[in-house]
Design a protein that fits this description.
This protein is of the alpha/beta class and 604 residues long. It contains 21 helices and 14 strands. α10 crosses α12, α15 packs across α18 and α18 packs across α20.
């Protein structure tokens, strides 16, 4: 049965082009929301953007974090583009992954063999009241988006979202659990007071969306200033779970382990570890990078699911190896404990099957073997994860996040002087969530993989796909223990500088979707020599330092990026900029690399 709910939320954009100083003088926004917006804008280096764009990014970031439970995503990818009617942001979450392309969805289907989808639609207004006409307009354009005839949207961003939506529904046979969920957020800086007229507008429009028979549920969230504040605070909170762990024993520990427990826990308590307050899976599997495999064709998962559905709940704790959790901190008296900054390092498959079968009768009383180990030592965490995963058939590549190279790369970034070019490598998702480090300076694993692959492996066309598959396809070409770390930092700093130039309106923003091709061209223009093997430390340092010298020269770096864009757009290449698939084609990379050699190396 379709679910019709009205919950409470709020935020966004006046069409004025006021500067932030002008915005601060506005009286309709309370001081707390204003302060949070200012902090976000500075942390992301959005100070040169128009007020409407700043606020749009802010609300997109807060709401997608609520739906996706991660701050490690690019809120610019959620934007629907300039002048898009009625909708400011769209997030498409597939199988617990925030997706930005058809290729990502295709690879997730191939990996999981199922589809669970949530569409997140966002509209924001800085006006201090909820306006019925604006809410109705949001619904109207949302219905247009889900109609088969959605060609009224003209931006590249919306065409991409439309193609993703159409691909999802064309593969409905993989929707084994449910139809997609549609969550709509209308944000205002005012206060939501359950106005009867607005409730009727929302109710009527929600029913029309439900009547499309495309969704398992449609939920509208009026999101006011207090809710915006709550959502923003949530983006900075550490991952926590408070549970009652009665049937446990203390495990003898070693140095660097604060405490360790082993025991049994009922599902009614265990689900607090893996499910958030809104009923979604938490992002707590990032240190265990094995992607969840589908039940249908995976014998282990099938056996677990059949055990549950057959009602053999008493035998589960005997037949299952259980779950291992590693946490930074533990607190609380006796059996009532709170674990903080934790990850599930073994038991990803078990947890996901339990989540999918969470409504099985009497499952809340079923006991699950659980081990909790508390340490803030990353080396110990890695040893625990490797040890607990060796009992199952896990390919070495699937533990790449925990290799010595990954840890050392993090330490390498930490050792970089704290100047204008300081970056931080986020080896674990949400690692810096509650820190004071500006978000613009955090390089997550996905970004590192994509920028290194684009700049030093000449593969910008591959980065549109799901990064978990990308790293497997790269093999030893990336995160190789024999590699020097400097190319990784160099590629990340290049991307950081390019994004800064886009954010400060110094480069044409319509070219940003070619950003991975642009950093490839930039590298060639600065260092046209053959890329040295990253294992050759001496040659690699000479090569990368030449690039770093340009990156640290304000005028030269702008000039080289502009030259890169001019070359990309030149008749010499004759690329089709109207075709959005151009960025995903290997042929595009071949045209670019061949063109660079022909134009710049023909006389060498």
């Amino acid at each position: 049965m379709l679910n019709r709910k009205l919950t409470t939320f709020n935020s966004r954009t006046n069409h004025s082009r006021d500067s932030y100083r002008q915005f601060e003088k506005r009286k309709f926004m309370d001081a707390i929301t204003k302060s949070f917006l200012k902090e976000f804008v500075e942390s992301k280096n959005y100070t040169s953007l128009a007020l409407s764009d700043q606020f749009e990014m802010f609300t997109n970031f807060c709401i997608i974090n609520k739906e996706y439970d991660s701050v490690s995503f690019d809120e610019k990818e959620i934007s629907t583009g300039k002048s898009t009617q009625g909708i400011d942001g769209i997030g498409i979450i597939v199988n617990n992954k925030l997706c930005n392309s058809i290729q990502e969805i295709e690879e997730l289907i191939e990996l999981n063999r199922f589809l669970t989808v949530t569409f997140v639609i966002i509209q924001s207004k800085t006006s201090s009241k909820f306006d019925g006409t604006q809410i109705d307009n949001m619904f109207r354009w949302t219905k247009t988006f889900f109609n088969e005839q959605s060609d009224l949207f003209v931006t590249n961003e919306m065409r991409n979202f439309i193609e993703m939506k159409e691909y999802i529904y064309a593969n409905s046979k993989f929707m084994k659990d449910r139809n997609p969920i549609c969550n709509l957020y209308f944000c205002s800086t005012g206060k939501w007071v359950e106005d009867a007229n607005l409730v009727n507008v929302i109710s009527d429009n929600t029913k029309e969306l439900e009547d499309l028979s495309l969704f398992d549920s449609v939920t509208f969230y009026p999101c006011d200033s207090k809710q915006i504040q709550k959502l923003y605070r949530k983006t900075k909170e550490p991952v926590e779970a408070s549970i009652k762990f009665e049937k446990k024993v203390t495990i003898p520990t070693i140095n660097e382990i604060k405490v360790a427990y082993s025991g049994m826990i009922p599902f009614s308590e265990f689900k607090k570890i893996i499910i958030d307050e809104s009923g979604k899976m938490k992002s707590v599997f990032n240190d265990n990078i094995r992607d969840y495999l589908e039940q249908e064709n995976n014998p282990v998962n099938t056996d677990i699911a059949q055990t549950l559905k057959a009602g053999n709940l008493d035998s589960f704790c005997i037949l299952n190896n259980g779950v291992t959790v590693v946490a930074d901190e533990i607190s609380g008296p006796g059996d009532n404990i709170t674990i903080t900054n934790y990850q599930i390092v073994n038991g990803c498959q078990t947890s996901n099957v339990l989540y999918e079968n969470r409504n099985v009768e009497s499952i809340d009383s079923m006991h699950i073997p659980l081990k909790i180990i508390v340490t803030d030592n990353s080396a110990i965490k890695s040893k625990i994860t490797r040890a607990t995963n060796n009992q199952t058939a896990v390919d070495a590549v699937e533990l790449e996040a925990l290799t010595e190279f990954q840890r050392n790369l993090e330490y390498y970034y930490q050792a970089i002087p704290k100047d204008d070019y300081k970056l931080y490598y986020e080896r674990r998702t949400n690692q810096f969530k509650s820190s004071e480090i500006p978000m613009k300076r955090v390089v997550n694993r996905e970004t590192q993989i994509k920028v290194f692959s684009s700049m030093f492996l000449d593969k910008p066309h591959l980065v549109a796909g799901y990064y978990g598959k990308l790293i497997k396809d790269m093999g030893d070409d990336i995160f190789n223990n024999e590699h020097d770390y400097l190319p990784y930092y160099t590629s990340a700093l290049t991307y950081y500088m390019l994004e800064n130039l886009y954010n400060t309106n110094k480069l044409e923003k319509t070219t940003r979707r070619f950003r991975y091709q642009i950093i490839l061209i930039f590298r060639f223009l600065v260092s046209p020599q053959t890329i040295p093997n990253p294992k050759d430390k001496k040659k690699t340092e000479v090569f990368c330092n030449r690039i770093l010298d340009v990156l640290k020269n304000e005028e030269e770096v702008l000039s080289k990026f502009q030259e890169s864009i001019d070359f990309l757009k030149s008749d010499f290449l004759n690329l089709d900029f109207k075709d959005r698939k151009t960025v995903e084609r290997k042929g595009t990379t071949d045209i670019i690399t061949n063109g660079l050699r022909e134009k710049y190396l023909k006389n060498v």
